[in-house]
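Q: I'm writing up a methods section and want to include an example of the input and output format. Could you take the sequence below and give the corresponding predicted structure tokens, formatted cleanly so I can copy it straight into the document?
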Amino acid sequence: MEVMRSPEFQDAAESAFSLITKILSEIPAVHKSIIHTPSLSLDQSDLSALQYLKETLDLPEPSPLQPLSDKFNLESSLSHMVEGLKLHKTLLKVIAELPHFQSKKPSELQYDLRDALLHLHKMQHLIKAVKTPEKVSESQLKEDLAQRVKSDYMSQVAAHLTLLQLRGFAKDVSRSLQTLIISEQEN
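A: Here is the clean output for your methods example:
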């Protein structure tokens, strides 16, 4: 697509990539500031111990990203990135409003997600992509989580699982954006 080579598209892709890199670097600090349960480590690779709680919380998950292909085009890729980042921004906002986190909010992370979304929206606009509806509404998520999160521990589990999920998704977004950025040699 010729529009991908345009300076506007490339600037937006590079800016979004930079913000996603920043988000990935912020996640450990945010986790450390709001999670105080030693068993909820960002380094743990085996989540089987949390599987029951994950199913109980039933946190929404983003649609998976795939490499660009005939079946997964640029519009689909950008749409999935936007949907997933919006979902995590909403999850973080709702979790930050839980009673346990009233004094500690991951606001900088939320601002960076918002800014990354602005660049992705610009990329969508440049390719004339059709806007997709949000996967989950903030009000519905608040209602659902309020019923499931009854203790400080469950609040921390929800925040922990959200940050783990965001980290994995942001890595996928980072890889996807890298494939869209055209180096000087390719131009």
